[in-house]
Please model this.
Amino acid sequence: MTNDDDGGDRVSIVRGADRVLVEERGPGVPEGIFGVDCMTCEATSPLFDDDPLPVAVWAVQHSQDQPEHTLFLARTERHWRVVPRPEPPAEPSTPRGGGVLGPAFVGLMCLLTALSGLLPALTY
Ligand SMILES: [Zn+2]
Model:
């Protein structure tokens, strides 16, 4: 019979009037889809789920094949979902634990930092 819950376990990105945009998480949903494009030619790496390393390897190998191609655009794609805004806990209801979000954003930023750290090593 308490009403002190403001939905702190669900991190919303944007709140509308009755809709909330959240990151889609769950079984089978990748935390990130990684890809990289060569900025010198039209070459594009395959896409890999949850792992930036194959993309980084692709960029290094592409630069070995084409020594003048040293600048890449690294991309990380994620799924977002718009869900109905949770009802305010005015009445007692059974909590539904969805586990929508975690601190994935910080992890992705670390991965991007590590990825970009590889690229300056290729220039000279
Ligand atoms: Zn290229």
Observations:
- The CA atoms of residues 89 and 95 lie 10 Å apart.
- The pocket of zinc ion is lined by residues 38, 40-41, 43, 62, 66, 69 (CB under 6 Å).
- The beta strands are 12-15, 19-23, 33-38, 48-49, 72-77, 80-84.
- The two ends are 65 Å apart (CA to CA).
